[in-house]
Input
Amino acid sequence: MNGWTFAATVGLGSGLGTALWGVATGPLRRRVVAQNLSTALASPGMLLLAQGYHRPSYVDLGLVLALLGPVGTLVFARLLADELAEDPPRAWGPTWAVAGLGAVTVIALCVATGPSRAMAKLLVIGALLISGNLVASRALSGGVRGVRRG
Output
């Protein structure tokens, strides 16, 4: 086990364990936020595993998670808009923490890979991961002021 796989194991084990607990228990607002955070934690984990095992195909899985995770959260936010309007989630602390984890992971991997096409791909994944997580969290917390729902 090298440092990359150890970091992936710690990140996936602690983060996804906590997210699984949040999805399985508690009120609706905590379950939806935990679902959003689980995909935001799984993507950096896949990127770290790609570096640790020297498997570039795992980077593609991280890209898919970075794209589809926030989309799934936006679907949940749309379908559960009435229930979430009564008690909107407020999870900016965990959202920024996971965005920071994604940024640190992408920066570390960019330094390790050096200038190449792989680094450009990592930067795109990082931008999608961070911006998608922030947009999805904003949608869960009530959206943008002045915009009417459906």
